[in-house]
Amino acid sequence: MTDSPFSAFRDAVHAGDVDAAVALFAPDAVFHSPVVHRPYVGREALHAILTAVVSVFEDFTYTDSVGGGDTCVLVFTARVGDRVLQGVDILRAVDGVLTELTVMVRPYSAATALRERMAALLT
To answer: Which residues form the SnoaL-like domain (predicted)?
Structure first.
């Protein structure tokens, strides 16, 4: 994963650098939320979401990665208020440019807390 868009994304997120993370994505990148059915399309939407995530997640850290080819799964832990959560970022790339980010989190109580905090920031 060294010198890949996946490692660059991981490093930008760990640094809290939303601009650098979003710059790695294609203009028409797709984001799949863990709590919203409809996908979000485009860097502008992705920027708003990642900006909110940086303020909502506490003690965020990537703990592992799995992948090969054009897909990488970054495993993370974080806290939302008093809820500890586990999650994954599933990243897809084409020709070294990120095109898709899918986020999944557990447990349900943490996902619910995440949904509530994100809704307050994004509406």
So the answer is: 8-100
Statement: the pTM of the whole predicted model exceeds 0.85: yes
What number of other Cβ atoms are within 10 A of residue 19's Cβ? 10
Local confidence pLDDT in tens for the 123 residues of the chain: 556 999 999 999 999 999 999 999 999 999 998 877 899 999 999 999 899 888 888 999 999 999 989 999 999 999 988 889 999 999 999 999 999 999 999 998 877 877 777 767 666
Domains and CATH numbers, the chain: 5-122 (3.10.450.50)
Q: Where are the alpha helices (DSSP H) in the chain?
A: 5-15, 18-23, 43-56, 108-122
- The one-letter amino acid at 33: S
Rounded to whole angstroms, the Cα distance separating 54 from 17 reads 9
Pick from 100, 85, 91, 114: nearest CA to 45? 100
The dihedral built from the CA positions of residue 55, 57, 61 and 62, taken in this order, carries a sign that is: negative
3-state class (DSSP) for residue 22 = helix
